[in-house]
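Recall the central idea of this unit: under ordinary conditions, the amino acid sequence of a chain determines the structure it adopts. In this exercise we apply that idea directly, starting from the sequence alone.
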Amino acid sequence: MPLYGTLDITQDLKRLPTLPNLDTEAWALPKAEMLQLLMEVPRTTTERLLPKAMHPALPSYVGLAVTKYSDSPVGSFNLAMLRLGSRAGAHPRGFLLGAVASTEAAARELRARWGFPVESGEVKFLRRHDRVMGTVQKNGRTILDCALVDPQPVSGTDVQYINWVTAANAPLDGTTQPMLIQVDPKYTFYKAERGKPQVGTFDAAAWNADGVILADPIVGTCCTVDTDLPRIRFVMDPLKPVFQGTRRIRESRVDE
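Accordingly, the structure predicted from this sequence is:
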């Protein structure tokens, strides 16, 4: 029997961001610097965080990401995210649990355009000779302090970024309703590095992941890429297996 998550997002609609429509324009995000650390976590701490439509990853893991966007339609900003490793059918996905943006404008637009569960706070991305560091503070309290230690050059073809899924309310067929939204950025690599993940501070509750405990590190990367936040192409029923509940709302990305 396949395993599924146990989260019913329809039971707490007020927590979900609400989109005015599903027709947001794409954002081009050139020369972004992306720090990503993958960490194993006990599956018993994550089952209740994954929607019923999705499958847990085996072994269970989370992705901590801190990205420096030097150019965007709302100016430069930094974004930190926590994503839970999962699958939508056979496809690997990162379910977005929590996010913090360094500007109010970025937080507002990311919530309204793509349904990210994002708040504003202090997000720092800092590169030193022997490490790349990310720190996040909310209300004066550090909720993440992490680093990629001893980064070594690798090819961009050695790095895989999986698509994201977020939960939000959005209008569909004339009714605003809860749904899962796929966000599938594309990447052109300029520089890629791989190293050892290191996490000094992780406040799980502040990332909507209460009870999650970080275990062994898997891998860490830091890459400079041209990327984007695309127009929304797929949405999913949060209670049905994705092979039954996925709906394509846009045919392709050729118009972006």
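The first strand starts at residue 27 and ends at 40.
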